[in-house]
Design goal:
Oligomer: single chain
Order of helices and strands: HHHH
């Protein structure tokens, strides 16, 4: 399966590079903190956006790449919209 190749490639990187990736990911997750207070959800959303970006660059179809990126973006926007609406209902 092609995704397993991508995962294997990432896993085989040098330790120094993994540390940099980890720091960048942590920063990205922290950035999402203003929109969502749940750390697990922040990590999942960051992974979704980063994964969509990685896959979109790995495929040839520009239309599919754009669809993938927009889908990930819309999914996260919808999550935040629902959370905001729920918070407003509580007040």
């Amino acid at each position: 399966m092609p995704t397993s190749l991508l995962i294997t490639d990432i896993a085989k990187r040098e330790e120094r590079l993994k540390i940099v990736y980890e720091q960048l990911f942590a920063g990205f997750v922290t950035h999402l903190q203003g929109l969502n207070r749940d750390l697990d959800e922040q990590a999942a959303q960051a992974s979704s956006l980063i994964g969509a970006q990685a896959v979109s660059r790995a495929i040839n179809s520009a239309a599919m790449a754009e669809r993938l990126l927009l889908s990930a973006q819309h999914n996260i926007i919808n999550i935040y919209a629902v959370k905001k609406a729920e918070a407003q209902l509580k007040n």
